[in-house]
Amino acid sequence: MRRLAIFICLLLMTCGELYAQRDTVYFLNGSLVVGEVKKIKLGVLTFDPDDANDISIQLRKIRTISARTRVFRIEAIKGEVYFGRILSDTAATKIFINRGYDTTELPLEHISVLYPFENKVLERFSGNVSLGYSFTRSSDLGRLNFDTRLSYTSKRDEQTFSASGIYTISDSSFSRDREDISMKNNYYFSTTWFGTIFLAYQRNLELGLSRRYQEGIGAGNKFLTRKSVYAWGRVGMVFNQEKSTEDVTTGTQSELFGQIEFNFFRFSKPEINLLTSQTFYYSLTQKDRFRYDGSTDLTWEIFNDFKLSLSFYNSYDSKPPVEGSRTLDFGIVFGIAYSF
Prior knowledge:
Blueprint: H1 2-20, E1 23-27, E2 32-41, E3 44-49, E4 55-58, E5 62-76, E6 81-88, E7 94-98, E8 103-107, E9 111-116, E10 125-136, E11 141-153, E12 157-169, E13 174-188, E14 193-204, E15 209-225, E16 229-244, E17 253-266, E18 272-283, E19 290-303, E20 306-317, E21 328-339
Antiparallel strand pairs: 1-2, 1-5, 2-3, 2-9, 3-4, 5-6, 5-9, 6-7, 7-8, 10-11, 10-21, 11-12, 12-13, 13-14, 14-15, 15-16, 16-17, 17-18, 18-19, 19-20, 20-21
């Protein structure tokens, strides 16, 4: 009997230890769920319960969270960034962040973004890809569009690759109407201020541009992190090398630029995301030349990780590469997007 009691005690201790190693969400109504914390983004926790599919939980329904076995990256609404393990406090709607050398208290309502900061390099990547196609029988023309974005995050660096294109297809031709490719790196000097460098390629036949290579440097600030909006801006200088659709090339031209980006979220069903990015250029080489590039993307989740996307783009050039070309280009594209 004594041996049986000892065995049961050891079994209970082992189960308790294994239970403690799992992430746990404690609700205000006294219940809890065990599984894996996937992320928190602007007011909503994505959680993978044991033996069930992912669920979304609004932070206002949670008392506290425990996730002790992994290191997380946590961004607060005032701009602070923390790296550490999450300790629970069942007496209040907050968490403790164990950073190894100290412990920081943070109310749940102050969390803007939280996700596991994995040691594996591949786990630090995230992104999305969108495809769309339309065909008009009367003109016998097809229109193909794509948009993709891939991001990698480390403690102080953010690298982003993005590419998009619009193409016209007929029985006898294939036209590359509009293309944008860019690579950028942001290095954070503090929780909100960063330096930025980037390379870009652009093509826009409507504005008489066969290709533009672009190299840029500047500085920026992540000035807004709230539960439903995320925004940053940057300014600096770019250097361009252009070729027109008439095969006329330019030397290196310099411009001042300013960019601002807003990301609005709604994570209640259905999940909706609105992203708008606007960039302004003022030429230091060509007198009175002003350029503007903008895009606004709306996505609507239809089921896990798959979304409908609607995008509006616009470009303006007061002095396009080909004299007499249009100065304004704009359009709307529709597609299906997948996030990972």
